[in-house]
Predict the 3D structure of the following.
Amino acid sequence: MALNLITIRPGFNKQITDTAAEGQYVDGDFVRFRYGFPEKIGGWSSITTDTLAGGVRAQHQWADLDGNRYVALGSQRGLYIYYGGAFYDITPLETAQTGGTFTTTNGQPTVTVNLTGHNMIAGDYFTFTSVTPPTGAGYTAANFTDQTFEVISATINTFTITMATNAGANAAASGACTINRYVKVGPIGQTFGFGFGTASYGGASGLTTTLNGTLSDNTAGTGGSGTSITLTSTAGFPTTGVIKVGAEFISYTGVSTNDLTGITRAVAGTRSAHATLAGVEYFTGWGSASLSSSIRLQPADWALDNFGQILTATILKGRTFTWQPISNNNNALSLRATIMSGAPTRTITSTVSDTDRHFIHLGTEATIGNTASFDPMLIRFSDQEDFSDYQPTSVNTAGTFRIDDGTNIVGAIRAKDYILVLTDTAAYTMQYVGAPFTFSIRKVGSNCGLMSPHSVVFVDGVVYWMDDSGSFNAYNGTVLKVPCSVEDFVFNTNNPGDLGFNYDAGKLVYASHNSLFNEINWFYPSSTSTEIDRCVTYNYSEKVWYTSSLDRTSYYDAHLFDKPYATSFDDAGVPTFPVIQGVTNTSGSATYWSHETGVDQLENGVTTTISSFIETGDFMIHAEGDGEFFTKVRRFIPDFQRLNGTATVTILLKDYPSDTAVSSSLGPFSVTSSTQKIDTRARGRAASLKIQNISSGESWRYGTFRADVQADGRR
C-alpha cells in the first residue's frame, strides 16, 4: 500500500475534543514550535551554587556608565544584586533602634534581646551594630556584628535569636546593642485577609498589651472620655492605626503616654462586650481593616527600574529606594539601598519615562509622606532629571493626575513612545508632550484589566497582557483580544484534562519575552496550586499557542546577557544567601537559572532529565475512510530533522471518540537517527501519535509522519 502523509498543524488546540482536533497537536510539555514544526525546548543550568532567601517576584537588568552589568532581584525577604557571578545583599534597613541588652542561658544557643518597642515578629531579619556582648557569656562583639539574624520568637519588648555557639554562662539584661531591621516587603503568596494592614506587612503585628481598666460595650473608652483607650503600655504602637480587642476593631489617630487617642469603635460594624481586661493587638501600615474575607492580600512584590545607572526599587504599596553603583569601585556592592529622598512613601508601582527622564509613581499619595492620603488611582511624576522633586511649581515639570476607570492601578509598562497604564478594568496611555502639561493621559480600552503587576510585556511595538477575566489582550493602537487555542485549559476546568487557573493567586502571574524564539511566556498558578506551576506560551511570529509545566517566578529576556535568566521557588528550600543566623526556613528559597543552555537541567553539577513530549489529536488515517472502516497500520516512516539520543514514538488507538486510547501492541517504539522505518501491528478507527524523550542528553525536532495503511473491515 502507498504511504499516507499525515499533515499536522503547529501549536496546541485544547478548545475541542481530541477527535475533533484531527490534524492538530493537542498536548505536550517542554516543547516549542519553529517554522511550523515541534521540538524540545532548550535546557537550563543554575547560575550560582547559592539560593536566595524567599521567592523572587521581580527581576531587572541594567548597566552602569562603565559597562558593568547588574541584575536586581526582589523577593519578600529582601533586595539582591547579582554581579560578577555572585549575589550581594542590598536590602534597605529601617532606622536603627538603640538600648537593647542580652539575656543568655548557660549551655544554650538561644539569646533573648531586651529592647522596648522593637516592632519585630518571628521570621523578621535584622542586623546588629555597636554591640557590647553580654558579660561572661563567652560571646564577643564579632559574634553579633556584620551578620544577619532571624527573629525566632517575639513579645512586645523582647525577642529571641539563635547563636552559632552555646552561651558559656547565664547573663541577665547584660551588654548593649543597636539593631537595624530589614524592611518588611510582604507575604510570600497571595492570601485572604481582613484588608491591608492585617498581619505584619507594612507595619507590625503581634505586639500585644492589656487594657488598663475595663472597656464597656458603649462608645466610651476607659476613663469614660469616649475619645481614648488606656493600655498598660503603648510601646511600639504607631501614631495611627487599628487595634483589635476581642472581636472588635477600633481605630485611633494618636498616642499619648499609655493612651490611644481619637478612637472610633466598631470599625467595619464590629461590636463586642469587654467587661474584663482584654488583650490588644494592633495592625498597621496599609490602611484600615475590613472584615471581608473576599479581599485578597497581594503577595510581596517590587517594581524595579533604572534611572540612568541608578537602580530604583519600589515595594508594592510601600516606599521607593535607590541604589547607585560606584564606577570601578566594588565597595558599592557592600552598600544597601536607601530611601528615595522627597518621594511618596506609599506607591503601588513605579516606572521611569526614560526618554524625558521623569520618575513616575502610579497609585500613590495625594500628600507626600501622608500614607492616609493614598489614592490607588493617582499618578505622580517628578521634575525632569530629578526624582527627588515631586512638588509642582511654575519652573519645574512635576505634576499629578488621576485616572478614573477602575478601583486601583495594577501595573504599567514602558512601550515605544508611551507608557501603558493598566488598572483592574481599563487601559490608559501616558505620553510625554512637554510644557505646560508634561504628560497627556488617554483612555484606550475598557473591560481589559490587568491580572497582576508583571503579567504584561512589550514586544515589537505591541503590548500583550493577561487580563483578570481569563483571556489575553494586545495593544497596538487599539486594544484587541488575542485568540487563544488553549484558553479553556489555562483558565477553566470544564473539560477532562483542563488544569484551570487559581484566581486567588493570580497576582503571582509573571509575563516574559524570549526573543531567541519569538515567544511570550505567562507563568501562572493552576487551579490546585498556590504557587506558579505552569506556563502558557504565545509564539507571536507563528501565531500559535502551547503549554508546559515550566515554573518560573521571574524571567528576563536575553538582553545584557546572552541567555534568558529566570528564578524558581522551593517553599521547603533553605536559602544559602544571605547567610542567616538561626534561620528557621520560613521563607523558602529561590534558584537562579540560565535558560536555553544544553538539553537538560543542570543544578550544581547534578543533571536532571527534561522529559518532553508532544501528542496529536485523533486522525482517520485510511484514505478511503471517515471512520466507518477500521484501519491497519503496517509501518510508519519517522522524520526527525534533529534527533540526539533516542525518541520514543507511540501510536495510540481507539475505536470510538469516548474510548480510552491504548498503545499499539508492538509499541512504544524506540527511534534513533539511523532508524529508517518501524513495523507495527496497529488496528483501529482512529489513531494519534505521541513523541517523547525520557533520558538525559536527548533532544529532538520532528518533521512529518508517513504511514502504510490499509482498510481492515467494519468490525
User: Anything to note?
Assistant: Residues 194-205, 284-294 have pLDDT under 50 and may be disordered.
